[in-house]
Amino acid sequence: MSPVGYFIQGVEPWPAETVFADATLAAPNNPPSSNLRMPQAVVGDRAYVANGRYLYRTALLTAAAWETLGLVYDFGPGVVITDLTHYQGDLAVLCGTTRDILLFGTGQGAVPAGTGQTLQAGVKGRHGTGYGGALVYGDPTTKDADLLKMTGGALGTSILTRPLDAPIVRVARLGGKVAIATRTSLWTLGGRPIAAKPDDPGVAGDQSVPATWSQDPGPFFTNGIWAADDDFAFLLSYGGRLYTWLNNHVQEFNPSSQRDGWRAVGLEGRNCYGATVAGNRLVVTMTNRRGDTETWAFDGSGWWQIHLAPEGGGETRLWPMHTGGAGNQDLVLFRHGSTAYDLYRMVWRSVSLHNLKGAAEFKTSLLDCGERDKLKAWRKVGATFAAPEVRGNELSVDTVFVALDYSVDGGRTFVEAASTGGLTLTAGRAYELEATLAGNAAASRWLMLRVRWASVVDWAPVLTGCWAEYELLDAPARRRRWSFKVQARDGAVQRDRGRSVRGGRQLATDLWAAWESGATVPFKDVDHDAAPNVRQVRIVGIAEEVAKPADAGRWGESIVALTLVEV
After folding, report:
1. Are 272 and 284 spatial neighbours (Cβ–Cβ below 8 Å)?
2. Closest residue by Cα to residue 234 from 432, 421, 83, 107
3. Which of 229, 337, 318 is nearest to 49 (CA)?
4. What is the DSSP string of 89-140?
5. What gap in Å lies between CA 56 and CA 90, rounded to an integer?
6. Strands (E), 316-437
7. Same domain? 240 vs 328
8. Which of 135, 195, 189, 134 is nearest to 163 (CA)?
């Protein structure tokens, strides 16, 4: 399913998708892998992405068409790039313990493109971000993994250190501050480096050397216990909130909310293969419970599935990359073990550079019409398409295929109810697709509807609603019921051929008492010898007749009419 919301008015097929075979990722370079995270950053006039020891860049952000990735630098055997970020106009490359932090000029910095300059000898980092003219990062060594470090001065001539509560696993920006995720807590850091006074010991009048940082990091939430290796696979700010992967869910932290802590926002799976913010959407790639790879886009109110690759039936998509608009594309999805990747245009640019997808589908949730306990016969289904403006090429002669399907088995299988293969722009501005279902075709408690688009070139009808008509097959509770008369008299013969020790008056009194109290009593039917079942019943109706009302208190004989219902 990959439509996108047309504000609150409807949905349309989205985003535009193409496949690009990139020879740069071929041997001897290693193709992308699910076992190796690919960090990325947009710095200056290009987007950058790393894969193991290799650093790549896109064409200029202003380029009209996508181009093969350019190899910027090969760090050599044993080096693994762990993070990329901007720093004072340059690109800072962090390589964990395998190499010192390296800076690359992007056209705006002092270092020429294609060469690198060490930030400072012996200074290494695993995850970090540029903030306030400084580089804020975590120490990559095991013994100091809980140390947060901040640079100051020209090219990081001074390193400031702040201890946190646990190893640092991700660094991001949130609300004008730095957000730091450790294995137990979330911290924020604001402020700036403050230069030392000329008379401070060892400064000798050099005001470029910072003596301290104006604020200390402060914890604002404790996560609890580290749960899985891919917890905090990403940490991103979107729409003023912080998002991450935690406990096999995409979780949201809203600093302005009264509810403390992470809140699951509707996406769960086995593993997460990264996320990014592209085309004004939060994009997350993961594997679901079955092992299929799913890529979803979040607009702040709901999730839209961009891509689905069945387990064993398609290459695993991973490490979504924000392109900065290079080549008029917005998103890259790499593939495990492949030199090909998927390009997505998520933003409308022009009639020829649109964001419509050639084929897409929209599925509803399970519909129960507010009566999920009742069986329904679904009589009619429909879908409406409408838009108050032309959504696409006004001169388009393309004919679009649309179809409406339904499912009564929870989406396992769908049956086509109606379709049209020649919908034109003129007719598609306001169109309704509907079908009457056969009497025995669809009976279930729940219904799912699916709308499919195909043959989309440069316009598509906007889906504004799906509907269904139904009739309740109201089946009342199935309970046994008996109606009969009882002879209440003295010396009544029982089933065992003995005589009852209770008189007729007592028998009638006991029956009236059971009816009045609503008591549950055991009952043996007349066929008990053939089917020895003892059923629990209640008396719901009772009436008594006597031969001579004047003798009712004198003689213990009457006829009692009973109505019993199984409990």
Report:
1. yes
2. 83
3. 318
4. TEEEEE-TTSS--EEE--SSSSSPTT--EESSTT---SSEEEETTEEEEE--
5. 15
6. 317-322, 331-335, 340-345, 360-363, 375-386, 400-407, 415-423, 430-436
7. yes
8. 189
Q: Are residues 342 and 372 in the same domain?
A: no
Q: Is residue 92 part of a domain?
A: no
Q: Could you report the per-residue pLDDT of 186-234, keeping only the tens digit for each?
A: 899 998 877 665 554 444 444 455 557 888 888 776 665 566 778 889 9
Residue 363, classed as helix, strand or coil, is: strand
Q: Can you tell me whether residue 314 is helix, strand or coil?
A: coil
Distance CA 107, CA 89 (A): 9
Number of structural domains in the chain: 3
Lookup: tokens for 557: 């004989």
pTM over 0.90: no
> Left if phi > 0, otherwise alpha if psi is -120 to 50, otherwise beta: which for 247?
left
Residue 232, CA distances (Å) to 15, 163, 411 in order? 27, 20, 32
Backbone angles phi, psi at 270, to 5 degrees: -75, -50
Residues 250 and 346 in one domain: yes
Is the same domain home to 234 and 342? Answer: yes
Element (H, E) at 40: strand 40-43
Three-state DSSP class for 468? strand
Q: Are residues 330 and 262 in the same domain?
A: yes
In tens, the pLDDT along 157-168 reads: 688 899 998 899
Query: Is 394 exposed, middle or buried, given 0-12, 13-18 or 19+ CB atoms closer than 10 A?
Result: exposed
C-alpha radius of gyration, the chain, whole number: 36
Residue 412 is inside which H or E element, if any?
A: none
Q: Are residues 502 and 554 in the same domain?
A: yes
Strand partners, 128: 137
